[in-house]
Amino acid sequence: MAKDRIDWDKLRVFVVVAELGSMTAAAARLKESTPTVSRKIDELEKTLDSQLFERSTRGMELTEAGKTTLRYARQMEEAASQVLSKASGHQDKLQGRVTIGSGDGIGPLWVGRQLKEFRDKHPRIQVRMRVQDHTLDLLNDEADIVIRFTEPREPEIISHKLGTAHYMAFAAQSYLDNQESLPSSIFEYHHHRCILHESYAHQIERWAPKAVELTKMIDFAVITNSATAMIELCRQGGGIAMLPSYVAEIYPDLVPLDISEVAPIQFWISYTDSARRNPAARAAVEWIRGLFDADVTPWFRDGFIHPKEVMPSQEGPQTGDIPEDISKIA
Which residues form the HTH lysR-type domain (predicted)? Predict the structure, then answer.
């Protein structure tokens, strides 16, 4: 626990040392003496009661505590930059290029459909949206910003939790009308035609301890790596699909089944310090974070909210709840 208030100047020095890996190089950039830089790092470590660096022949290497501190320090820098940007009132003059990376789903379905809003606000910023089945490498400049479902551990990457996607069952009314009975739990899906996205199969062990057993019970009618194909097949009455709850807002013709969520999956926005220093990329980060603001939209809150509570017209057919042992995600 910190013993005193953290001195921002010392934290700023810490960030530079972490970036350069050298007291001497940091002193040159900051135009301070090496002993002064060393003293500020020592004082910060005493304040935090943590060792932030391992001193070695290779230079200054971050400890685990140092990596965590660096992540938070960069977030504080970003917050300060946003305050300055808003105060200056020059956001409409921003220009440049920004590459946003995401997987197939939340990027095109939620971010892409609202991209016009960003372009209207920043007409001189060119946006490139890359949708991939793997996480784009920020450190190799494959993207400026990435929306991802795993939290990065690299100290060079800045990340913020955007929210939680709540996956649940959807089907077309035409499909439901042709069924003798509706599933009352997730374990009854093997009686129905089910549609699977390939990425779910790769993530399923991370979602729920007993999900592997579940996949063995279900003979999926269709497996695809395209969220668009999955949703369109579901809309045409092709079967039951596991989709994030926000799909109810985009496709009101899909019926959310009255069963608890299958899995809550957290996701993050990530970018590097160079993107943070790029006004165009920083504006994109701020805009994307706003799209998932829990005070504005309920879909991405930590707690699951059934679509029928958000959209009264979305009255799902009465079925049942997921058994306790699988509805609790580890």
Answer: 6-63
